[in-house]
Amino acid sequence: MMYLALTCRCLIGVVFAVSAFSKVRSAAAFRDFSAWLGRLPLPAVRGRGAAAVMAGTEVVIVVALLLPWTAQAGLALAAVTLAAFAGGTAVAVRRGVQAPCQCFGTSSRPLGFRHASRDLLLCAAAAAGAASGGAAARPVAVVLCLAAGLIAAALVVFLDDITALFA
Question: Which one, out of 21, 26, 57, 121, has a CA that is 20 to 30 A from the CA of 51?
């Protein structure tokens, strides 16, 4: 089970690192994210304060996942955060939002149920990783877990581009 936890830590950590970086890489990027968030039909996530909390939570998750003694807590926080993201995304889509997804920076693909599904799958991975714990591992297995996590994270980050290829 330690290998599952390590793979999930890598997957979730990379996804949240890319997401957080896309929001806080510059003042303009943060303003764009805040403005996008303010246009969503979700009163609870309006304003720069909500954008700062979301970006800050993503950074906290990444840091927690890097440290072995906080990894389980980081995965648990990620699971809760992803469940909230999935719920908010589903509500926004149901209310007719056609705005491009800003999860990993600027995108031309509109927010859709695939984004909520992605968040739910990531939530399940985070929960599974949190439940599986960790221990000492063999170096070769660690490398394989990290590779699997990186590949899965790349697929998540580039979901919109991949779906555009097949649309």
Answer: 121
Domains of the chain, by residue range, sit at 2-166
Q: Where are the alpha helices (DSSP H) in 2-112?
A: 2-24, 27-39, 47-66, 71-94
Instruction: Count the Cβ atoms, other than its own, within 10 Å of residue 128.
Output: 16
Mapped onto helix, strand or coil, the DSSP state of residue 67 is coil
Residues 27-79: tens digit of each pLDDT: 988 888 888 887 777 766 666 688 888 899 999 999 999 988 899 999 999 99
Distance from C-alpha of 145 to C-alpha of 158, rounded to nearest angstrom: 20
Q: What pTM, to 2 d.p., does this model score? A: 0.85
**Could you tell me the two tokens for 132?**
């599986």
Q: Which two tokens stand for residue 42?
A: 């979700």
Rounded distance between C-alpha atoms, residue 29 and residue 123, angstroms: 26
C-alpha distances (whole Å) from 37 to each of 34, 78, 89, 119, 122 are 5, 19, 11, 17, 21
Q: How many CB atoms lie within 10 A of CB 94?
A: 11
